[in-house]
Request: fold
Amino acid sequence: MTLLLLCAYAYRITGDAAHEWIGVCVFVLFIAHNVINRTWYKTIFKGKYTLRRAVMTACNAALVFTFAVVLITGLLQSRAVLAFLHLPGGMLLRGIHTTAAYWGLPLTGVHLGLHWGMFVKGTRKISGMNGENRARMVAAKVTAFLFAAFGVWASFDRDMFAKLFLGFSFDYWDESRPAVLFFAAMLSIMTVYVFVTYYTLKIAERQKMLYKSNMFSELEVISMKTALCYFSGTGNGFDLAIKLNENITDSSIFYIPNIDINVLNKYERIVIISPVYCFGVPIIIKQFLQSLSNYKNKTFYGILRFGGFSGNAKYYLKTIFDKNNLSCNNIYTLQMPENYTLSFVPPEKHIDKQLKKSRITIELIAKKIIVNNKDRIRKNLFSFCDRIHEINASKWATMSKEYFTVTDKCNKCGLCIKICPAKNIEMDNENILFKENCLACLACYHRCPTCSINYKDKTYNKKRYVNPHVDLNKME
Ligand SMILES: Cc1cc2nc3c(=O)[nH]c(=O)nc-3n(C[C@H](O)[C@H](O)[C@H](O)COP(=O)(O)O)c2cc1C
Ligand code: SF4
Ligand code: SF4
Reply:
């Protein structure tokens, strides 16, 4: 759609008839885009407004308005698509049409900038470029920066300020210049807005986190004996529990599969540390919370870590607390390296960056917990993900034994049998066998020292992931 939009600006090059038909195509795609993302409209008055969401809502509303104006004024002066109507047109309509259309350029840039992180991740996944190649990554960043710098020059060259604020309705293009320069100029102008939005929000969110961190440091600490109960396949949860333990005095760490729930009686505050599995939580977390239904007098917290997109998992976990009548003060989410790499590209080089970033968030979460921070946990924009979770629950909650294959590199070390939290693996006549109680934690897959355990035939050449900051042998 963005490429067609750029073509629509090139009416001096394409001619008026092509301009109108390109415009029609842009609108068809615009409507399709809106239909696909219709939940945005449904949830507009629901949930909490973060800075990002507020900017997104304002930008989207402005885009819808702008596109509507461009469509209406475009149709009213059509000479090709609606030629048979012989509409009068006029300079005023033309002025409104072009001014609104030019506003579409920065607004589309801001819109893309708000989703840039998602776009980059998606491109990496599809293309298989996982940031392993540092030179390639630096080259991509430098190119993008130079292109944006070109966009600043192009903004002056194309007289963008006048087009946006003075309502110029004429756009001249010197025909001696190559047409490709026009497209490059328009794309680069949009890139400027993508850049500015992406980095401004990144900086603002970071500042907000630091501000919050200072704010919570000033509140009174409520001393409580705290149990940090975690479930983990590849160590992110263990890492998180250890960091919290360092920041919360009088706290102890418990590994959920091995926990004796009677021990928790001594604790006043219980923190459930869970991974996000298919926009929800692993079945073991649901079962664990059910088993705690006698602990209604305790103060609960939830911490969910996710790899790429947590959907509405926070609210989903809240409903599980509610069903078991457990009072949960708050649930926090944080991003840690993705371990569901069966069908995705393993995170590789981003691991360090992500873990460094997660440390700052963990410190903030610890500060919130020790002051007994309480907040309303609301549904977010992605509440439809709950449905996806429920529909697929039976598929992802357990990995069927047929999905696992063990290659002959297996040296029968027995580690997978030892670490499986569901006691789902056994050795029979020197063969590794899987049963049907799998929790889909992927510990066996990632931690097998010879990478012998595979998911169907899809993972033979894939790198495995384990959190590099923890000794996974101590995870028990
Ligand atoms: C079966 C499975 C499903 C997952 N589903 C999601 C998901 O829906 N969204 C997401 O962002 N991450 C998902 N992940 C990634 C994990 O939540 C994330 O990598 C987490 O930090 C792993 O923690 P651990 O190292 O303690 O096991 C999934 C991981 C697994 C194994
Ligand atoms: S951990 Fe790997 S090498 Fe060891 S027994 Fe299991 S499959 Fe074989
Ligand atoms: S079989 Fe593997 S993936 Fe399943 S629960 Fe055991 S360790 Fe986790």
